[in-house]
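Methods — Computational structure assignment.
A single polypeptide chain was analysed. Its primary sequence is given first, followed by the predicted tertiary structure written as structure tokens.
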Amino acid sequence: MRYSKLFGKTLRTAPKEAEAISHKLLTRGGFIDQLAAGVYTFLPLGWRVHRKIENIIRSEMDAAGGQEISMSVMQPKTLWQETDRWETIDPPLFKFKDRHDKEYCLGPTHEEVITDLARRFVKSYKDLPISVYQIQDKFRNELRSTGGILRTREFFMKDLYSFHADEEDLASYFKKMIEAYTKIFNRVGLKVLVTEASGGTIGGDVTYEFQVPAVVGEDTVYFCENCGYAINKQFAEEKEIGEQCPKCHKKLDSTNAIEVGQVFSLGTKYSKAMGANFVDKDDKEKPVVMGCYGIGLGRTMAATVEVYHDEKGIIWPESVAPFQVHLIAIGEQQTVNSKANQIYERLIKKGVEVLFDDRQESPGVKLADADLIGIPERWVVSEKTLEKDCVEVKKRDQKGTKLVKISSV
């Protein structure tokens, strides 16, 4: 990608209302643009990061046996009435009527829709277990949207739903999904606390949040450095857990954290309410046992910036960076521009993802934008580097630079 053709530009200042580091840097770097309160456009740089996160999630969900589908954003009122959530879910639903006066909502989650599918396609124990997932737009009628893409009204979520013949099989798959989630966040570059929590309006006897320690985090997590136990502060108060770890009895520490994912052991809550039954080996009809598992993609992206940044800008981990190399031509001489173009074309042919800053801007502006955008490697071509037949290479997370022969790069 040539920077001169890139849609979306860097900004020198952040929006006045921006408080979170991720909100400031993602806006200034040209990754996102606010359309309305809690509603954002992902610009090309931001969407490239988003897709990298999507693909990491897909690979681990596929490896765990998940089958990808796409369910409708529009959901009829009748489904939500079956589970008594039409009026009670919090935040409340975005509701509307069609021209025939039938009521719908914009889906904040898909338990009702997937359970409706299950009751039509799952008939026998031979159909179980099965798991399906989607990566899709969700809508939540938040009272107050904060932190840029940390808390929004429209967002992308990966939600997977699993169906089982009994609680034992669910427990086994539930453990498998916790491991898959840990792999996902490790690949993104995030260390998470697997945190006991309340099921809230989704429900579930066993629920875990995946929390990223961060100053801007809205949640407080108590955790044990010794054994790794963690619990949401609100849930700890419900369970009357004090300062000691209930597992190893060491003192618990606390941290602010960003919730990037959550898993719910739902049991038969939705299948009983909606009549999603199957016939077991003994020819008896039973409700399907369910689990659901969600990851917020925008939150994961923002949390990554909260963890990986410095005073100059973002420092993307290689796994989710929008490009691998930020190539910069410095100098007006034709030889500099010609050589930079040659290097760019050669890298593209090699399959390297390159952002080539070919703009007519000063060296200071180009270097500052490179630091702000945060691509893992910066390659500078200038008169000085060409005197030695080299490019200057700098890792974004390191201070030093080195000259590398053009022939070797």
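Note: The two ends are 19 Å apart (CA to CA).
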